[in-house]
Design brief:
Blueprint lengths: L1 E4 L5 H14 L11 H10 L6 E5 L5 E9 L9 E8 L8 H15 L4 E7 L3 H9 L3 E12 L2 E11 L2
Parallel strand pairs: 4-5
Antiparallel strand pairs: 1-2, 2-3, 3-4, 5-7, 6-7
Helix pairs in contact: 1-2
Length: 163
Amino acid sequence: MHIRPVAVDDAEATRAIYNVEVLETTVTFDLVPRTLAAQELWIEQHLGGHPAIVAFDDDETVLGFASLSPFKARAAYAPTVEDSVYVDRAARGRGVGGLLLREIISLGTDHGFHSVMARIVGGHDASITLHQKCGFEEIGCEREVGRKFGRWLDVVVMQLMLK
């Protein structure tokens, strides 16, 4: 497996990975699949200070992606970011998520951020465990803050201090 910064050419591959989760799971609270244009815009927004990366195999097939996004819009929150990690279902169990999360944390440190927040749907034990293995601590739970597929959803809040 290899890691590199995301490129606009990755829009379709990353969109395909993401949209499966939109349509079939609660790991994202998006309800409408992303269009190609929306995914291209998302990539453009992650080419600077808030990076995104892709993991790919020797055949250049994108296996997953990770990103850092602004935590909140107000200026005082600028040193804090929120991470996202998505792995293609066919590539799960091969260490892709851990590789992506460790690399995006490293990039967060390199970019001078102070802390990384993870907001994970309650019950998503694989993501919670992955974040714990990378040093995140659970700091709270937002109860029934989302609704998808007719269910109320909690969000587990985790944090990693970088500096």
